[in-house]
Write a structure and sequence with these properties.
This protein has seven helices and eleven strands. The chain has 258 residues and is an alpha/beta fold. It folds into two domains: 86 residues, ATPase, nucleotide binding domain (Nucleotidyltransferase, domain 5, 2-Layer Sandwich); 149 residues, ATPase, nucleotide binding domain (Nucleotidyltransferase, domain 5), CATH 3.30.420.40. Strand 7 and strand 8 form a beta hairpin. Helix 3 crosses helix 7. The chain is globular and about 55 Å long. The relative contact order is 0.15.
Length: 258
């Protein structure tokens, strides 16, 4: 049994794998102001509330795109769980060949998602992660990470609208009944949601065109993916646990007893 931690720019997601049985995910706000004790006590108490016996945890794996919190989080795991965490990064065994100009620039979250998508769905595959940023990653049939596209996330775009325009309110991100909006809130929702549907379809279409591959599988994940999935034929599958599945696969390749 092991603990999987995915540190994103907005949230930290946690879950426990016991064989093929998954418990979670649970979420906390990402903050570089927390101490190791604050992280450690929170994780310890959370697992206790979920009836997870921390003494039975054999290891911890962490994927992070926020370097500033890693010292505190690593120390929290070592101090409160008495385990040395596996950190996904350069040197980790992933089974994925990174063909970027500078492989070290590729975020751990993108690697984890790509590993999961390739192992579970096969290649070639496009992974779309609707998180703080909306990212598109391409893995070919050989298991090579060959391309990456990054755009502002849906929430970032919404925040920019209401914070930069004095007369626009802070809104819930959801699809309106019609694109033909008749008030301020639904006009913003229409622009955000239908705009992202259009973005997804155009980017996926262009990736397929440039690679001359119409048959590429497209898998979506991330907290806001459910808003877009089902509204377009350009996404084949929605996998809410894709990152956690990727951490499980990478953990298997890097676990301490190997």
């Amino acid at each position: 049994m092991f603990l999987a931690i995915d540190v994103g720019n907005t949230n930290i997601n946690l879950g426990v794998w016991n064989g093929d049985e998954f418990h979670g995910p649970w979420r906390m706000i990402t903050s570089n102001k927390k101490t190791s004790d604050e992280y450690g006590l929170f994780i310890k108490q959370l697992l206790k509330e979920k009836e997870i016996d921390t003494d039975k945890l054999k290891s911890v794996i962490i994927s992070s795109v926020v370097p500033n919190i890693m010292y505190s989080l690593r120390r929290a795991v070592e101090k409160y769980l008495c385990l040395k965490p596996i950190i996904v990064g350069p040197g980790s065994k992933t089974g994925l060949a990174i063909k970027a100009e500078n492989p070290k620039e590729v975020g751990a979250d993108r690697i984890v998602d790509s590993v999961a998508a390739y192992e579970i769905y096969g290649g070639p595959v496009i992974v779309i992660d609707f998180g703080t940023a909306t990212t598109y990653d391409v893995v070919n049939e050989k298991g090579e990470f060959v391309a990456a596209i990054t755009s502002p996330g849906i929430q970032i775009s919404a925040d920019a609208l209401w914070s930069k325009a004095a007369q626009l309110p802070n809104i819930a991100i959801e699809k309106p009944k019609s694109i033909l909006a008749r008030n301020t809130i639904t006009s913003m929702q229409a622009g955000l949601v239908y705009g992202y549907i259009g973005q997804v379809e155009y980017i996926v279409k262009e990736i397929k065109k440039e690679l001359n591959m119409d048959f590429i599988k497209v898998v979506a994940t991330g907290g806001l993916a459910n808003i877009i999935y089902g509204e377009t034929k350009y996404i084949d599958d929605y996998d809410m646990l894709l990152t956690m599945r990727g951490l499980k696969i990478i953990h298997e390749k890097n676990r301490p007893d190997k």
